[in-house]
Amino acid sequence: MYGVLLAISSGHFINDTLQAVVPAMFPIVERSLGLSYTQIGWIAFALNMTSSLLQPVFGYYADIKSRPFLLPLGMLSSLLGLIGFALSNNFIFLLLSVLFIGFGSAIFHPEGSRVAYLAAGNKRGLAQSIYQVGGNTGQSLAPIITAFIFVPLGQKGALLFTLAAGIGIIVLVRVSQWYKRRLAGEDGFSKKRQNQKMKANNGIHKKIKMAMLLVVFLVFARSWYGAGISNYYQFYLIEDYGLTIREAQLYIFTFMFAGVLGTFFGGPLADRFGKRNIIFLSMLGSAPLTLLLPYLPLDVVIPVFFLIGFILSSSFSVTVVYAQELLPQKIGMVSGLTVGLAFGMGAVGSVLFGSLADLYSIRFVMILCSFLPLVGVLTWLLPKDKEIRDYHAV
């Protein structure tokens, strides 16, 4: 199944690379179109909130009846939005274009998570890490795209990514063909789906519901911190440290690339040491470093930034798998909630942080963000991995 996992991870990489074009463009359109921080926040909101609102919806209907060929359809929607974004010459058209990109992501992610789940076998942490590391790698390219494509080529440089979108459609068509065969009954999957539906009719334990709400809240906190860093820390580096746009991208790339590594290693570590334990260590382990970050001299920002990105992102794929095990009969909806709400709540955070930056300063926003990982202490209230299985047995 590694071939399937690598293929869906590649599709995830291309999908999220297309999304990364939007924040990568922020420093360019902020100057060329004269946008305020609040307007930049609304662009991030339009992109991420579309995905947030619709991912759980698509996931819910996928649990009822899967539609494998939604995967390439989602990529096509992102392609159309990318073309519009490259050619837009005002704020309103930028907003409309990113809606198509967000819509494409909402279609792709729930079905992509289901494919990873089906191909996982008994290594769900590793499988979800392979899948998620593709997306995180794509997102980490945003600062590289800014420095080497948009700074020299400007906004129309986004048209270069239409080729990647075309390749993504081809890859996802092949994955959809495998997915369709699996749904047709290969390896007894049809029987497995029937058993899951029977379990769904037995009701959900009260503690499982409470745990799911807490997982979603933890996703909120982590995504708000990520939104503050990925969308605004580059402006903090430019304003407070005097860096150029291109120089600032190295720091953002360090954070995002560290997140890729953390995402990959977090899954196998969770398979070994327990999912709840990794979620707990990820949030609280990064908190001391995030609190220090706004006050550090420039020389030590990169190593600290790397550690924050690695530690905080080590729970990214683990949170998805943990939530899937809380509600194994609703894989699509749960994936939409955890991954989709991560983007959506980041969107709300982007608007809030943009408004606060206009009212106060970027430095104020960075200090505010630094406290968010502290809510990870609430992870201790989650049931242990073994307790989840006991609740399902009741």
Coarse shape: globular
* Helix-strand makeup class: mainly alpha
Question: Percentage of helical residues?
Answer: over 70%
Number of domains: 2
CATH class of the largest domain: Mainly Alpha
Task: Report the average pLDDT across residues.
Answer: 83
Write the CATH fold name of the largest domain. Growth Hormone, Chain: A
Q: What does the main sheet amount to?
A: none
Strand content: under 5%
Order of helices and strands: HHHHHHHHHHHHHHHH
**Count of helical segments?**
16
Q: What is the name of the CATH superfamily of the largest domain?
A: MFS general substrate transporter like domains
Backbone CA Rg? 20 Å
Number of strands: 0
Low-confidence stretches: 196-201
CATH-level-2 architecture of the largest domain: Up-down Bundle
Q: Give the N-to-C terminal Cα separation.
A: 32 Å
Characterization of this structure:
The protein is mostly helical. It is about 80% helix and about 0% strand. The chain contains 16 helices and no strands. It has helices at about 1-30, 35-65, 70-85, 90-120, 125-140, 140-155, 160-185, 190-200, 205-240, 245-275, 275-290, 300-315, 315-325, 330-360, 360-370, 385-394. Helix 1 packs parallel to helix 5, helix 4 (about 90-120) runs antiparallel to helix 14 (about 330-360) and helix 5 (about 125-140) crosses helix 13 (about 315-325).
